[in-house]
Amino acid sequence: MELRQLRCFVAVAQELHFGRAADRLMLGQPAVSQQVRRLERELKVELFDRSPRYVRLTAAGERFLPAAREVLAAERAAAALAAELAVPGARTFGLGTITGLGERLDRILDAYQRHAPEVRVELHSAPVQERLARLADGRLEAAFVRGETPADTDDVRFLPLRADELMVALPARHPLAERSELDLADLAELPLRLTERRNHPALVDLVLTACHRAGFQPVPGPASSTLQDTLAAIGTGTPTCTRPTPA
After folding, report:
1. Shared domain check, 62 and 99
2. Could you tell me which residue ranges the HTH lysR-type domain spans (predicted)?
């Protein structure tokens, strides 16, 4: 088992798409597919259910994913320690990130570098529940999360950073798309595409609560995967809507 095999496996597990995983890793798609196949042969188990329409983790893949992430986290910790040994006095700061920060993340990192030039920031991308678990046990120093500010716990303190507008994505051909602003109640009849709650409970709860406050129970649409695929499905299929991230 090689680290590059695990990196390819984790990237595909997060993207559920070999092409996007390859782009993320800056590799060719055949190379990513080959590394995952080698890992499967090594483990003697299928990690992904592949079809022309989708890529999904098998039950074995779901169970193996946390272990693979732990190995890669251990590799990063070893690399950070090596960097500290090479530059005495250097420190690292583990920061959990979310999609959609865009240029805001660049500005945050630039400001932090000016504030603490001796600290090297390490960015970690992971599902929100894993981000919070790493934060609680000290593997991360801070993490971005999206949703209403929850109550602090004994392990984690939540601080509001900024408020984003609640946006909706509609098919361009839909009559509501001609408006510049909408009331949430206008969307009551349209199926709503959201990620599964286990993937991002704070964001899903935020959207559903906003719908309830607007006086309706949203019609559930197909579960969304990546934002790119969800927007493509909205633009070409039966009229549905989603709350995109980022706005």
Report:
1. no
2. 1-58
